[in-house]
Specification:
By secondary structure, this protein is α/β, with parallel strands linked by helices. The chain is built from 17 helices and 18 strands.
Length: 425
């Protein structure tokens, strides 16, 4: 009996210990809830707006085609529309000066309007990056023409706004010398055209003689100094050569082939190449400007080199400004300058485009290129200068100085010089 009780007690203790060692099963975990989805962000709205571009009428269709290529290559600007309007370079500058806000966002203009446009806040300066590209890819003179002080304000588009000699090779036997040209024209009863009244053409004689007539400007376009030495022995020599030209029975004042009659020679630019070819036919020929005798020495005529520039007006929207700058850079690139030459024969300022065989083979471009070596880039000139030069030309044509001695000629040039100086500051 005692053994049975001992066994029962042992079993009770074993069961108790087993119960104490047993752990409760963990409660089933509640499945985690999926995080709520964040609301989808609305897609960024594409930038949009409109641009207005002013170019010469002859290049409107060409410019539209080039802009279409640019926009296709830049889908980031797909929201913008670009209107191309026919406004010539001279009119574009005048219109911008009248009302900058109503003017084009991108516009072509001649380099002699740069100072006025800068002063009117009608141009935004190029970024350092674009200015470096312009300087590296274009000829030095065109870059200088786009620069005011130390700041580049425009994109060079052409380097062809100079003048040279168109002539009838059946009449003119020696295009290299002015006296020979006039003799041939007189013998044939033909005319020699030169715009002696123009402040652009007139300096060809003075610059050829070694004279200077330029203006310095500050970064705001204000004229600060006139650099001139017309009142000198070399100036008097040039003056005499102009007087002798005006005395020739072959001389006719003018520079437009389209308005010329009975002409055998005319000093004009590449823009009239087609008209010159039509006028002279199979006898069409071109050459740099001739030499003329100044103070007893055969002297090469000089003159101005001119340029067409593309400007961007200030913008308040950064995206639109970026588009304007990129588009202006493209429209003045090597590719587009060469294409523009092939369509409307505008001479490139881009160095690689200038070296293209098609450009080098063009007679008018070759003559201009030969002449540009003897020219200075046309900088900025006060508006009053052009009227002053016209008055001097009128006096020469009217014969006012035909019998004047050197002292009288020097006095006339001194008056001209002092007046030019007075326009600065």
């Amino acid at each position: 009996m005692k053994k049975i009780l001992a066994m029962l007690l042992a079993l009770v203790m074993i069961f108790a210990l087993a119960a104490c060692g047993q752990q409760a099963a963990p409660a089933a975990e509640k499945p985690a809830e999926a995080p709520a989805e964040a609301p989808a962000e609305a897609p960024a709205e594409a930038a949009s707006g409109s641009l207005k571009v002013w170019v010469a009428e002859a290049t409107v269709d060409f410019t539209k085609e080039q802009i279409a290529k640019f926009m296709e290559a830049h889908p980031e600007y797909a929201g913008y529309t670009v209107a191309v309007e026919p406004v010539g370079e001279g009119d574009a500058a005048s219109n911008m000066l009248t009302d900058v806000e109503a003017g084009a966002d991108i516009f072509g203009f001649p380099q002699d309007q740069l100072a006025r446009l800068v002063a009117a806040d009608a141009l935004i300066e190029l970024s350092d990056e674009n200015a470096a590209i312009v300087a590296a890819e274009n000829d030095v003179s065109s870059v200088a023409a786009a620069t005011m002080g130390s700041t580049v304000y425009a994109y060079p588009m052409t380097s062809d706004n100079g003048y040279f000699l168109y002539y009838d090779k059946s009449v003119v036997t020696d295009p290299s010398n002015l006296e020979a040209i006039l003799a041939d024209c007189e013998a044939a009863g033909k005319s020699f055209y030169y715009d002696l009244r123009s402040g652009w053409y007139q300096p060809a004689f003075f610059f050829g003689a070694g004279c200077t007539l330029t203006y310095d400007t500050d970064d705001q376009g204000a004229f600060t100094k006139c650099n001139i030495d017309y009142a000198s022995d070399k100036g008097v020599g040039a003056f005499k050569a102009l007087i002798e030209l005006a005395k020739s029975p072959a001389f006719v004042n003018g520079s437009s082939v389209s308005n010329a009659t009975n002409a055998a020679a005319i000093i004009d630019g590449t823009w009239d190449a087609a008209a010159a070819k039509e006028l002279f036919g199979d006898n069409y020929a071109c050459a740099k400007l001739p030499t003329v005798k100044i103070n007893g020495v055969d002297t090469q005529l000089g003159g101005f080199g001119g340029f067409k520039l593309l400007g961007v007006k200030p913008q308040t929207d950064e995206t639109k400004l970026a588009l304007c700058d990129e588009l202006a850079l493209y429209l003045t690139s090597e590719e587009v300058q060469l294409a523009r030459f092939n369509v409307v024969f505008w001479g490139p300022s881009n160095l690689k485009a200038k070296a293209d065989p098609a450009v080098q083979a063009d007679e008018a471009q070759a003559a201009l290129g030969a002449q540009l070596v003897f020219t200075i880039p046309q900088g900025q000139y006060p508006g009053e200068y052009w009227g002053l030069a016209e008055a001097l030309g009128d006096d020469i044509i009217a014969g006012k100085y035909n019998d004047a001695d050197d002292a009288a000629l020097l006095a006339a040039l001194q008056n001209f010089q002092d007046t030019c100086i007075g326009y600065a500051g």
